[in-house]
């Protein structure tokens, strides 16, 4: 796949699809960062201070809603930003584009995040698709029309 560094510099850059393992490692790092953020900043703000408060149904529903909201804002904001990548993806030199190589809008990045619900409902097989499809797309990438690519100049593995 060919992209250009900028509109002014039209010399083509060959970009590779991100490997399944880099995507998985980035996801684990992002999940760790989100968990730390929620534990340190969000839970005390919403009044959850102890584990027993999240063992009842109301507490669990509240926590699930918070996790969903924070994770959605994290993934959609970072993947639609100028860097086109969450912190985890940045560490591993990968980024998200649409199928034409353009930056995602916040709406499309949100759709990609919501598409992860499908990847989860398939007993995670939706995620495993990234290891076997030609363009390394998971189910949520196919639904949202996105690609995860290796950054030019960063070694692929």
UniProtKB/TrEMBL annotation:
Domain RDD: 17-145
Sorted UniProt keywords: Cell membrane, Membrane, Transmembrane, Transmembrane helix
Primary subcellular site in the record, as a coarse category: membrane
A GO CC term attached to the entry: plasma membrane
Transmembrane segments: 24-48, 60-78, 113-132
Membrane topology (UniProt): Multi-pass membrane protein
Localization of this protein: Cell membrane
Pfam families linked to this entry: RDD
Highest taxon of source: Bacteria
Signal sequence, renumbered to the chain: none
Keyword match Cytoplasm: no
Name of this chain's protein: RDD family protein
